[in-house]
Amino acid sequence: MTRPGWTKYAVGEPSTRRNWTNPDCSPFDTVYHICHVKDAFRYLEDGNIKSSLVWDESRLKNTRTVVSWLSPNLWAYGSLYGNIRFDFDWRQLVKGRKFYWVEVMTSYRPPAYRILLAKDEPSVELEEYPYEDGVGPLFYDEGGSEWYCNGKYTGESMVDSDLPLSKCKGIGFELHHNSYCRKDHSRCNDLGRRGVDAGAKLIARLIAQKTLQNDTSLRDLFLDEETFNIDVDDAWKEILRSFSRAKTGGDVKHSDPAARPIALAMLDRFAAGRSRKELALCSVPTMNWN
Question: What single-letter DSSP state applies at residue 175?
Answer without folding.
Answer: P
